[in-house]
Specification:
alpha+beta, Elongation Factor Tu (Ef-tu), domain 3, 14-stranded mixed sheet, seven-stranded antiparallel sheet, 29 strands, GTPase activity, Selenocysteine-specific elongation factor, T_Tr_GTP-bd_dom, methylation
């Protein structure tokens, strides 16, 4: 029986030119020769690992169980930076351990910070690698390494990686041009640290099969091979798999893992799947899955959190690069929250309740968002009320294919790559996708997001004990008829109901069911007397306005809500 091989996927991340590829190369070579005392196996014909993936095999450490076996680290070297975001987010479900590579002469750089953010969202464990120590003068090398180690510990203090191992190496002493005979420094120590950090990842073979393909090629007489990592579920010989991008279903003819033929593979495994022939150029990267298990969506509802390092507000109607599944597309956002009374309510995770009412927000609410006046006032009192959960409606510029409950990241990838700023804005979980192209008519009306409206006017005069005339609440051209029956409140405390228009200038009549209070009546009668005196020309305009101010007009408040996606634009009062 073959010794068991435990596969742990390690993401190699870092700022451009920090030496990620050299490190992956040094690790896989050192690993193979150190562990097996022989040169790395030449690539066998047939299914090989993709170039972005190399592997390092070593004996199984004691914490991973008794018995013989091998620990295999699959190193996922993330190449260019734009693709880094897409690759890592796509493979986030299967990266078990992350190596953050830092150029020891430069420290944290913009992209290192972004990699740290992605790690916090997608990863459980991290090792920091301070690379290029050969560039430090030998006499000062140790003190420089200690200084940078302290700096990194401080940076990581408030992250989930606080206290993680920090290892100093020179993956390629002398740089890319140096002869191959130069031995790497510190790599054996790094391998020991990686072994100590390895754990049994939780893998679940149930559910739909979904695999991220990162390489595709054909073998004459056998078929087309897709290599990649299984994100969920499992696959067996003879299964049918769908390639959603090509809208075709193919039969699995053979499979290999690490050059060994297998009949079964599950979540977390790197595998090559050979299916009946198709043109490999049509699918360089993408997803394959159980037939009909992925959906193609035009819009989605997500729960989300703002990324703390992103500067600036997240505005409704703004456009972001949305990475969802294995695709990145442009999308427009609309933020919303629970109704203010429910800000502290516990929200069920990964479920969206269409029965509830939600409050439209001009921007994502956070401590630094000052858009709402309410927040400004509360802030002065030292208590900003923030909801426990917020959501967004994402509308994509082109449809995306993805699994349910997948990770979503919103970023501003068009920001200058050299600007010292984090381009990742928010992350969340896709709760509900909209597959219908006409979702604005068929789906959005079910989404009960409302805007709170507040209009103010003034009482112009009293008609009798139970009715007054109001003004300045509506424009002259407003159809007052649609407001008839809505409740209003006077600043003196009385409740009223809009009864209809009065004349042609936007004035209206209010019925006061419980009658006006004597004080209110006196106040209004005094105000209208002064006004009528003014009309007779007894006082100048300036005097009239100052007297009116001292008489303090009685204001009328009309508060109602309107659902954003209600085609009839009905006004609702609780």
């Amino acid at each position: 029986m073959a010794a068991r091989v435990l596969n742990v996927n390690v993401g190699v991340l870092g700022h451009i030119d920090s030496g990620k590829t050299a490190l992956a190369r040094a690790l896989s070579t050192t690993g193979s020769t150190a562990a097996f005392d022989r040169a790395p196996q030449s690539r066998a014909r047939g299914i090989t690992l993709d170039l972005g993936f190399s592997c390092l095999r070593t004996a199984l450490p004691p914490q991973l169980g008794p018995g013989p076996g091998e620990l295999q680290f699959t190193l996922v070297d993330c190449p260019g930076h734009a693709s880094l975001i897409r690759t890592i987010i796509g493979g986030a479900q299967i990266i078990d351990l992350m190596m953050l590579v830092i150029d020891v002469t430069k420290g944290m750089q913009t992209q290192s910070a972004e990699c740290l953010v992605i790690g916090q969202i997608a990863c459980q464990k991290m090792v920091v690698v301070l690379n290029k120590i050969d560039l430090l003068p030998e006499g000062k090398r140790q003190s420089a390494i200690e200084k940078m180690t302290k700096k990194m510990q401080k940076t990581l203090e408030n992250t989930k990686f606080s206290g993680c191992p920090i290892v100093a190496v020179a993956a390629k002493p002398g740089g890319p041009e140096a002869p191959e005979s130069e031995n790497p420094l510190g790599v054996s120590e790094l391998i020991e640290v990686l072994k100590s950090q390895a754990y049994l990842p939780s893998r679940d073979p149930s559910g739909h099969f979904l695999m991220a393909v990162d390489h595709c090629f054909s073998i004459k007489g056998q078929g087309t091979v897709m290599t990649g990592t299984i994100l969920s579920g499992s696959v067996s010989l003879g299964d049918n798999v769908e390639i959603p991008a090509l809208k075709v279903t193919k039969k699995v003819k053979s499979m290999q893992m690490f050059h060994t033929p297998v009949t079964y593979a599950m979540q977390g495994d790197r595998v090559g799947v050979c299916v009946t022939q198709f043109d490999p150029k049509l699918l360089e990267r993408g997803l394959i899955c159980t037939p009909d298990s992925l959906h193609t969506i035009h819009a989605a509802i997500i729960s989300l959190k703002k990324i703390q390092y992103f500067r600036g507000a997240l505005q409704t109607k703004a456009k972001f690069h949305i990475t969802v599944g294995h695709e990145t597309v442009m999308g427009r956002v609309m933020f919303f929250s629970p109704a203010p009374a429910n800000f502290n309510e516990e929200i069920q995770e990964n479920v969206f309740d269409f029965e509830k009412d939600y409050l439209y927000q001009e921007e994502y609410l956070s401590k630094d968002s000052v858009s709402s006046e309410e927040n400004k006032e509360n802030d002065q009192a030292g208590e900003v009320q923030l909801p426990k959960q917020q959501w967004a409606l994402l509308e994509f510029e082109k449809p995306v294919t993805c699994p349910k409950l997948c990770l979503v990241i919103g970023s501003k990838l068009d920001t200058d790559i050299h600007a010292n700023t984090c381009r990742l804005a928010f992350h969340g979980v896709l709760l509900q996708g909209m597959e219908d192209k006409n979702y604005t008519e068929t789906f959005l009306p079910k989404l009960k997001v409302y805007k709170q409206k507040h209009k103010e006017g003034q009482v112009e005069r009293v008609m009798d004990d139970y009715s007054v005339i109001g003004r300045s609440l509506f424009k002259k051209e407003t159809n007052i008829q649609i407001f008839v029956g809505l409740k209003v409140k006077l600043s003196t405390g009385e409740d009223g109901i809009i009864d209809g228009g009065f004349g042609q200038s936007g004035k209206f009549k209010i019925r006061i069911p419980d009658g006006l209070k004597p004080d209110t009546k006196m106040l209004l009668t005094a105000a209208s007397r002064k006004k009528s005196k003014g009309e007779k020309g007894d006082v100048t305009k300036e005097e009239e306005s100052s007297k009116n101010d001292s008489a303090q007009p009685v204001t009328i408040s009309l508060i109602f809500k309107r659902y954003v996606f209600d085609t009839q634009k009905k006004m609702i009062q609780s």
